[in-house]
Amino acid sequence: KSLSSDMEGEIFKNTVSMKVLDLSYNNIVDLSAPMFKNLERLQTLNLQNNQLSTWRVKVDHMKSIQFINLKQNRLTTFGKEAQMSLTKLFQITNLSIDLSGNQFLCSCDSVHFLEWITGYRNRVVHFNRYECSSTSSHKFNFSDADNSLKLLKKNCKSYLVIYIVTSVAVAIMFSIIFGIFLLKNKWKIRYVIYRFKQRFKTYTGHSIIPQADSPSYEYDIMISYSAKELSFVLTDVIPRLENEAGFQLYIKDRDEPAGISCGEAIMEAIQKSKRVVCLVTKSFLKSTWQDYELNMSRMEAIEDRENLNFVHLIIFPDVCNGSISIQTLDLVRQECFSEYPEEECAFDDFWETLISHIKELNRH
């Protein structure tokens, strides 16, 4: 059985009286932790000139150990468990250890190891001759270990501050970018989430929304309005568009189904309607739910209907004479709007023009 394959320390289980073990020049790459678990009386362990890059062998049970030779290996550091194991032996025995010819890693990650080995330098053979590996990020003079250790700790603190500041700055930057992305795309994200839920309902057979392969709609027009415009809807919109023009309108105060959330009712109405007409007043622009209706209608126009003409704005004088909201700019640029007249004499022409425009759109 080879040393590298012995995970339980079986090779040396019957050599409990051994005092000297010489495994030098064997090209040993690794040794398991319990390799020498039965060698309690061992005094000398020679592992010189091997290929060990990690030391994890348990030795703290060797109460008689005097010398461990790890010269000319590939060790770059000792882990905390290895340090603790050797520290116990340093405290109860006269153990000395030779680590000559190993290229130690001198960096901020190895400060704890360098502090430990410096503290026990009187037990480390030829300590002053040790060198750092060529891949080390910092210089360390083992012949002046105390000052080198102080300098290394100081430099590492500076690096730590830089690392923390940089990390925080990067985190803040990404948070801002992510926040801007969410803010810019919040309506698209909401729309995509709703459509995902809708497709799931379709898959399970619970959706009642018209799908792309069945483009018949329950309503010709969904009217989007704020609560303050309800009287206008009842006295002007319904008589003009429904009674006279024959359009089937969706009026939320009349047609909204019971038992579902307001947001879901809005989305169902949008998708059941051939188009959406928004009565854009100042109270409309201040309303949270009208903002939701307008933006989700825009998303439906862009993502599903692929035509902004799906949404038509009727902009009232109190908005025309003020500032156009940012939500309506793209619709205004695409001329998907009409201005409601201030003079009563122009009302008939306005409604006739709007009805003709909608009928013309429906023919395409």
From TrEMBL:
Q: How does it sit in the membrane?
A: Single-pass membrane protein
| TIR domain sequence ranges | 217-358
GO MF annotation list: signaling receptor activity
**UniProt entry keywords in alphabetical sequence:** Membrane, Signal, Transmembrane, Transmembrane helix
Give the residues annotated as coiled coil. none
Subcellular locations according to the entry: Membrane
Gene Ontology terms: cellular component: plasma membrane
Record GO biological process: signal transduction
Q: Which InterPro entries match?
A: Leu-rich_rpt, LRR_dom_sf, TIR_dom, Toll_tir_struct_dom_sf
What sections of the protein cross the membrane?
160-183
Q: Which family does it belong to?
A: Belongs to the Toll-like receptor family.
- Which named protein is this? TIR domain-containing protein
Which organism is this protein's natural source? Answer: Magallana gigas (Pacific oyster)
